[in-house]
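User: My advisor, Dr. K., asked me to get a structural model of this assembly before our group meeting. I'm new to this, so sorry if the format is off. These are the inputs:
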Amino acid sequence: GAGVSQSPSNKVTEKGKDVELRCDPISGHTALYWYRQSLGQGLEFLIYFQGNSAPDKSGLPSDRFSAERTGGSVSTLTIQRTQQEDSAVYLCASSTRQGQSSYEQYFGPGTRLTVT
Amino acid sequence: GESVGLHLPTLSVQEGDNSIINCAYSNSASDYFIWYKQESGKGPQFIIDIRSNMDKRQGQRVTVLLNKTVKHLSLQIAATQPGDSAVYFCAEIFTGGGNKLTFGTGTQLKVEL
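Assistant: The format is fine. Below is the predicted structure of the whole assembly, which you can bring to the meeting.
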């Protein structure tokens, strides 16, 4: 089966514009995560969706960042009024809670966002 | 996805030698740990995991050691190959706190022929 996919693979935007990043998790995975990988910060958690539960938004850096997950599958990460410090690779991961024999998260290839 | 220009610690090894990559984790309550490998332009790829009730786990050519007393993880790669060249991250999870991964800084492994 297909792995986690993300689109676009690259996005260049002007400062102040809004961007939307998309994640298609592995079919059947109930948990979906967004992480950011940026210069000097490594990989950092942004937000986590688990089934129908309220998302864990504790990693979102500001109120310009939001995410939704429709129908328990596809997720969109939205960044409003982008700033240059938002430039990073945005990674999506999914995992299954069934059985919980493993907490392995499967990552997509990421979206490289460049804010000019 | 790739490590975007971080000044990462680098480990250089000769092909065929064993590699040991170390990681210090931060949360004493973390009870599950994963090692990931990230090649340039790709997302992190699962290598091996270990629960906090274990101190050693072996996979194919890889072994993870966990020392909870000093909050230290290591990844040992036997007979390192050129294809092992990548950035390696340890990640910790507190499974009672939502399963989000907290990543270490990462180590760049370079395999010299």
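One thing worth pointing out at the meeting: Chain B touches chain A at residues 1-6, 32, 34, 36, 41-46, 49, 89, 91, 93, 95, 98-106 (CB under 8 Å).

User: Perfect, thanks a lot.
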